[in-house]
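Appendix B. Chain record.
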Amino acid sequence: MEAFARHTGTVMPLDRIDVDTDQIIPKQFLKSIARTGFESALFFDWRYQPDGTPNPDFILNAPAYHDATVLVSGRNFGSGSSREHAPWAIQQYGFKAVIAPSFADIFRNNCYQNGLLPVQLPEPIVRQILDRAMRDPSYTVTVDLESQTVSDDRDALATFDIDPFVKHRLLNGLDDIGLTLQHERDIAAFEAKRRTTKPTVTAAPA
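Structure tokens predicted for this chain:
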């Protein structure tokens, strides 16, 4: 997992509430368990018209926002089913952080597991960020995990809360496997000792 410490990027203002995981990545794209290639399916039903052409009215298709790396949206972001493909699609599209007034718990935890930072801020602050980004497509914010702050070139906008252990994991790029491998020597020593002290299953004699 890629570590996250501090990111400055332009804002994609997705001014909608209750964006659920089926809207983030529709069910027909969940057949693959490979963790790559989901960026083209992000917001598919909003992004494309029935004939497959890009929907010119959807913000993700606006050329001015093509390089955005911070997704900002309304409350209850990531509700719905627990599909881990949702943060995969967001991250693979190029977003490093998602800012919203609230997140669904399972979606938030899936983000943490994949190094995508969900930042919960008060709704008036999110509204301010959305308005500034819609007025100015070059509007950028800085998300600093170490100081737990969000700022732009005008204001220190807000601080955000995060569990200290989750923060440690993100700062050091540690998913569950990474955490386990920190104890690799102890695991190897235990396994070596176990073979001599515990029963083992062996093949029956021919």
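Further analysis of this model is presented in Appendix C.
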